[in-house]
Amino acid sequence: MRRRQSLGLVAVLACGLLAAGAAGKVSEAEARNRLIKIIEQLEKTRFCQSGRCRYTDVRFQVSTTDRADRPFKGLIRAGIVRPSQTLDKARYQLEFIGGRWQLMGGTESTDVNEALYTGDKYEFTSAYGRTPVRGKLTDPTNDLETGYKRLYLKILDKGRER
C-alpha cells in the first residue's frame, strides 16, 4: 500500500514538472515581441555627455538556435545620431536565457573611436591614443555615457531583461 502511494506521488510530481516545463517555453513570436519592447525603450533613450545622442534606423532580427537553454538569439543594429558629421553605428548581441533576453556584447563605432563590449566589460580604441582603455560598466567611478551602458544598466537590469 505504501509503495503504491509513493508511486502515485511520483507520477503526480512528474506530471506537474512536465506541465511547468511546457508552460515555461516561450514562442519565437513572444520572444520577438519582448525584444521589440526593449527596442522601443532604446529608441527613446538619450545618451552622451551632452544627452543629445540617440538611436536612429533601429533594425533587429531574432533567430532560433539548436540549444534548449538558449533557444533564441537577437541582433540589434542601429545608427547613432550625435553632434558630428558622421553617422555612427551600434551593434548589440542578445541571447534568450532562462526565459529572458540577456545582453551578451556589442560594438559602437564612431568617427573617433571603436568600443567593444562583452557583458559589463568594455574596451575603447581611440584615434587619438595608442593604448586601449578598458574597464567595467558597473564600476562606481565609471562616468561613461554610451548607448550600450544605458541599455545594459537602465533599459535592462545589468544586461538582463527586467
Descriptive notes:
With 162 residues, this protein is α+β, with helices and mostly antiparallel strands. The chain has one domain (27-155). The protein has 3 helices and 7 strands; from the N terminus they run ααβββββββα. Strand 4 (100-109) and strand 5 form a beta hairpin. Residues 3-23 have low confidence and may be disordered.
Topology:
Elements: H1 2-24, H2 28-44, E1 54-64, E2 72-81, E3 88-97, E4 100-109, E5 113-118, E6 121-126, E7 133-136, H3 147-155
Antiparallel strand pairs: 1-2, 2-3, 3-4, 4-5, 5-6, 6-7
Provide a short characterization of the protein structure.
This protein has 162 residues and is α+β, with helices and mostly antiparallel strands. The chain is 30% helix and 35% strand. It has one domain (27-155).
Keywords:
162 residues, alpha+beta, seven-stranded antiparallel beta sheet, 7 strands, globular, disordered N terminus, Lipoprotein, signal
Task: Determine the number of helices (DSSP H or I, runs of at least 4 residues).
Answer: 3
Estimate the helix proportion, in percent: 25-40%
How many β-strand runs?
7
Mean of all residue-level pLDDT scores: 86
In percent, how much strand structure appears in the residues? 35-45%
Sketch the topology as an H/E string, one letter per element: HHEEEEEEEH
Number of self-contained structural domains = 1
Keywords: Signal
Organism: Gloeobacter morelensis MG652769
Protein name: Lipoprotein
Signal peptide: 1-22
